[in-house]
Amino acid sequence: MTGAVASREHAPVAVERPQRGDRSRLFDDGVTLEDRVLGAWEDLVVEGRAACPVCGGSMAAAGGHAACADCGAELR
Asked: What pLDDT shows up at residue 18?
């Protein structure tokens, strides 16, 4: 018979965190996430569709919000 044992001991986990002053960015082109979201909203209002700010897939406006057909991200 196989069993499991719970214990309060935790194995140390190495977490790689960015260091202060690290210039790495989410987007390489210097555009912020806020810029991407606002741009997507603008495209949705004007054209009814936009590139998803998360994955670059296709978003469509529907009833006051938008959803990405590829990754499921939503803008509300």
From this structure: 57
